Amino acid sequence: MEAATLKDIARELNISVSTVSRALRDSYEINAETKRLVMECAARLHYRPNPIALSLKGSSSKAIAVVVPQIANYYFSQAINGIEEVANRRGYDVLIFQTHETYEREVANLRQAVARRVDGVLISLSSETSDTSHLQELQQHGMPIVQFDRVSGELNTPRVVADNFGGAFAATDHLIKTGRRRIAHLTIQPWLSITQERLAGYRAALEQNGLPYDESLVRFGTFGPDEVGPLVDELMALTPRPDAFFTASDRLALGCLAALRQRRIAIPEEVSLVGFTNLTVADMLSPSLSTVVQPAMEIGQEAVSRLLDLIELKHRAAPPTTITIPTTMVLRESSQLAVGRFEEV
User: Fold this and answer.
1) Contact of 47 with 9, CB cutoff 8 Å
2) What is the mean pLDDT of each run of 10 residues along the chain (345 residues)?
3) Which fold has domain 54-161+296-325?
4) Beta-strand (E) ranges in the chain?
5) Which of 280, 299, 293 is nearest to 329 (CA)?
6) Where are the domains of the chain?
7) Under a CB-based contact definition with an 8 Å cutoff, are residues 3 and 48 in contact?
8) Within a 10 A sphere around the Cβ of 283, how many other Cβ atoms?
9) Bridge pairing between strands 290-293 and 272-277
10) In this protein, which residues make up the domain named HTH lacI-type (predicted)?
């Protein structure tokens, strides 16, 4: 079957080719009803944009780069699902790069993306990235960039993030409301935006409940699988020792859970535990894990929509700003509340 063209759609609907083209690009110039008719006709005729023709027509490759720390990470895999859904619907291919949490790999990924002539970049910074000069240089050369999840204020780009402060506040406040007073916080590198925001939420909840902030209860680390055990040992050796742990990620929570169980510390009888992400296995752990849920797919959808608006220079493209998506909290056995209870945070 010969592929349908813009002309075929225009002929079918008795409208101009330029109107069809603008409708498929989701242009603000075309009304919603015309867009709907064009989209339905395109689907019915099995229309697919020709990337080679588009590339020859102009400088656009109709492809974007998505740079993330790790694809195997549940949060980023869900975000990528949201990104691909929107990008493909708007006629763009998605090239995925992973930094494996290293600055050097991030720089190399961006070089490769430029070599492939992508139209724009979506990026979540690696845990090693404190210097963003490589991204600033790309921006100076006209590359559209949108940051999501782990972002830098040094870059004047749109940023799409979860409500890290609100989620951390809710998790800490919940632990306090259930009687915990010595709440340890395990987190990652201090220069990352998510680290700073979640630490700020943790501190604010302590302050609101009249509890002092104790630096000795906070530990900064990486995502190393063997790192959590020694940190738990350090914290449990304190006097008085912690009666709860709030971790800045579920990966840290898993390490914390394993370390506490290996040391025969009962959860939640002796120590409560709350994570941040909501891994798919969170409700299957023993005990099941209370956690703050990041709306990963929604963040991915919003971030790519902002990027494509920048690429297409839409009249309604938003100026650089931070879009904050609300989080929710799932309370399970690890913090002594009934399984399946949900709270907005």
Assistant:
1) yes
2) 79 91 82 90 81 50 94 92 95 95 94 90 94 90 93 93 97 96 94 94 98 96 76 94 94 91 93 90 89 95 95 68 94 72 43
3) Rossmann fold (3.40.50)
4) 63-68, 93-98, 120-123, 145-148, 159-162, 183-187, 218-220, 244-247, 272-277, 290-293, 322-325, 328-331, 341-344
5) 293
6) 6-48, 54-161+296-325, 164-294+328-344
7) yes
8) 15
9) parallel
10) 4-58
Tell how far CA 223 is from the center of its chain. Answer: 16
* Among 254, 220, 66, residue whose Cα is nearest residue 149: 66
The contacts of residue 16 (CB under 8 Å, 6+ apart) are: 10
The CATH architecture one would assign to domain 164-294+328-344 is 3-Layer(aba) Sandwich (3.40)
Q: How far is Cα 291 from Cα 277, in angstroms, rounded to an integer?
A: 7
Side chain identity, residue 313: L
As beta bridge partners, residue 65 has 95, 121
Architecture of domain 6-48: Orthogonal Bundle (1.10)
